[in-house]
Write a structure and sequence with these properties.
Elements lengths: L2 H13 L16 H18 L5 E5 L3 H9 L7 E6 L4 E6 L2 E6 H6 L3 E5 L5 H13 L21 H8 L24 E4 L8 H4 L5
Antiparallel strand pairs: 1-2, 1-5, 2-3, 3-4, 5-6
Helix pairs in contact: 1-3, 5-6
Length: 208
């Protein structure tokens, strides 16, 4: 991992404590009904494509997302989670620690998102979900986010790579694992448009 990324990651970590937590690059649709329609449509798209143990990457609306995308190459995604089909929840690591959230919550915070299917048998992907679930409540790895790994804590893409068993294989030579790098784990199954970019008529069926 390039030194420049570590420096930039340090800036990203510092941004977690700033008062401003709204992206300066992307905005949500001004119409709340349209905004909600995208989330409803995306949850249905998710259920049509996702499988247990899939990786779901997203571009969020926080200033931290802007910084991560600015300094990391690859897919324009700033956050990573693993999907638990048994609960229809995502397990991820955020500044408050490892948690689980509903599909509506995770996709509702997304400007765009994609599904990556790890090149692992279904049984191994299921086991990865169990490992991630066992880590619920674990603290956030702030030092790992700048390349100084804390084996007892996780940042988002580190959690996913660890749960899938690829942290010490696919990414063994990397100081840190970025969300975009998780594309290397398997094929992209689905990639959304940006929230607000589709013709309104395409989103109309999902308005409540």
């Amino acid at each position: 991992m390039r030194t420049s990324l570590l420096v930039a990651a340090a800036l990203a970590t510092a941004s977690l404590t700033t008062a401003c937590n709204h992206s300066a690059v992307v905005k949500r649709p001004a119409d709340p009904k349209l905004d909600a329609a995208y989330t409803t449509m995306w949850v249905r798209d998710l259920h049509a494509h996702v499988q247990d143990g899939d990786i779901v990457l997203r571009r969020g609306y926080a200033v931290l997302s802007d910084i991560i995308l600015l300094v990391t190459p690859g897919a324009p995604m700033s956050h990573a989670a693993i999907y638990d089909a048994s609960t229809d929840h995502f397990i991820d690591a955020v500044s408050s620690g490892v948690r689980e959230v509903t599909a509506e919550q995770f996709l509702g915070a997304s400007h765009r998102w994609m599904i990556v299917r790890p090149n692992l048998p279904a049984a191994e992907r299921h086991a990865a979900v169990a490992r991630a679930r066992a880590a619920l409540g674990t603290g956030f790895d702030f030092s790992g986010f700048v390349g100084l790994d804390n084996a007892d804590r996780f940042y988002c893409s580190e959690l996913v790579a660890w749960a899938l068993g690829v942290r010490d294989t696919v990414f063994a030579d990397d100081i840190l694992v970025t969300p975009a790098e998780l594309e290397e784990v398997g094929p992209t199954i689905y990639a959304s448009a940006d929230r607000g970019d589709l013709p309104t008529a395409q989103v109309d069926p999902y308005w409540q």
